[in-house]
Amino acid sequence: xxxxxxxxxxxxxxxxxxxTSLGAPAGWPQALRTMVDMVLRSPIAMVLAWGPEHVLxxxxxxxxxAGARHPAMFGxxxxxxxxxxxxxxxxxxxxxxxxxxxxxxDQHFVLERDGEPEEAWFDLYYSPVVGDDGRVAGxxxxxxxxxxxxxSERQRAREQEHLARVNADLDALRLRLERANRQLAGDMDxxxxxxxxxxxxxxxxxxxDHVFELANDAYLRLVQHRQVLGKSVRQALPEIVEQGLxxxxxxxxATGEPxxxxxxxxxxxxxxxxxxxxxxxxxxxxxxxxxxxxxxIFVEGVDITEHALTEERLRVAQEAGEIGTFEWYPxxxxxxxxxxxxxxxxxxxxxxxxxxxxxxxxxxxDAHLSGPKRLATDANPIAYAEFQITRVDTGEQRWIARxxxxxxxxxxxxxxxxxxxxxxxxxxxxxxSLRQAEIALRELNGALExxxxxxxxxxxxxxxALRQAQKMEAVGQLASGVAHDFNNVLQIISSNLQLMExxxxxxxxxxxxxxxxxxxxxxxxxxxQLLAFARRQPLQPLVTHLGQLLAEMxxxxxxxxxxxxxxxxxxxxxxxxxxxxRNQLENAI
Length: 589
Hints:
Blueprint: H1 30-41, E1 45-50, E2 55-58, H2 60-66, H3 78-81, H4 86-97, E3 102-111, E4 118-130, E5 136-145, H5 147-197, E6 201-206, E7 211-215, H6 217-222, H7 233-236, H8 245-255, E8 259-269, E9 275-288, E10 294-303, H9 305-320, E11 323-329, E12 334-337, H10 339-345, H11 355-360, H12 371-374, E13 385-390, E14 397-406, E15 417-423, H13 425-503, H14 507-534, E16 542-544, H15 546-552, H16 554-561, E17 578-580, H17 582-588
Antiparallel strand pairs: 1-2, 1-5, 3-4, 4-5, 6-7, 6-10, 8-9, 9-10, 11-12, 11-15, 13-14, 14-15, 16-17
Helix pairs in contact: 13-14, 14-17
């Protein structure tokens, strides 16, 4: 810091006073020169505010109070130098110009002395300065900073207050401490029991030889209940030396870095000359004392043998059955798949897989069954579904079955789905073959049923024909008997008619006898026809005019039907001759 001095050296002589109300030092009044000399020579902080603008002139000690504002504030009006203290300075200067003095003890200010606001305390002594004309021309101030003392006193007061509170609470604290000690003893017992009964195995080894200090029940079960406390790891568990775990303990102790093992396969001596395979997740955590030095290692872990073996068996089963697994995150489209899943779709082992890529290989007609398409509408978009894909490597179309469900994610609000997929192409082909076979079987059954119906119809017809034949046989037998009997009657009638003709009769009666003889002849002919039917004689077709035949039968029909029934015969014009057995036709009529 530049020294402030009077005479030919800076800053008084070197300062440009032309811009102030004081003017050049050569023209200063004697009172000002005297006060400036006193201020600059004072060993304590002093500042002179002269003239109506209260231009500041101060010494080296005050420059320390001004801080970073020095030397820029030298020669400035007080308002420009300390704008944040304007209200205080106006009040003080008004009093001093009225001839009064002002004294302030531990006056508090918030000043920006070094670019940042800071609290400061001062003892201030303000006195008016009389000029050459006998009137007050300025104010001189002695400034003694008491910030350190005030802060110290406040700190001491706070400490005394705190000490008083501490003393007041000491008895209560002592009581709480006693209760805490009792609680701690109980907690220690609880923690010891908790440590001993913890489901995960735990142990503490100390020193460079890793001597067992603590081991819980789970750890003792892991090492086949061997006595390990007080022994080094090398002595208690020699079998792990060759497995490299002693080297790991040494490295953790040397580096202070914990060691984490996941799914580590360890062979434990069974005690009968054999070994027990254990698969473990565990950590070697270095233990440090208050000085930060490593004094031991905490061992903690879980035996996952059964879980790991189950997963291994499941993996083998999935690979043997070509069951692929996948994990899908819809928000990012990320899909994590197993090797078996890649093989199902024909992806290379290092190929990128995402939901969009999988969608491109689903047959378009089945795309609506995919997870992304069902995400907006289904609570479980990857519920069981069967769809066709086009393999990436061969382009072959295959049938895939997929089943999955949503699972909780470690990220809040994130959707996560787990599922499996497997090839059902052969099953689909078998189902299609069965479907075609069922169609063929239904058609065959239909044809068989139709054939059975047809055969039943034919059988019915044959049976009906047989029944008709049997009826006709019976009719024939009846007709044969009737014909014989009827023929005998006709012979008697014919003989009597012939005798009547021989005896001679009247003309009227003769005509009737003639008609009767004709009727007998017709009856005889009918009898012959009945016998022919009964004997199944072959037909004797002759060319016959049906109109003439009916005309010849008119009298016979009239006598057979009686007088109350009139017979009308209608014959179409141009009626053709037919070839027919006359006797059978007459018989039928």
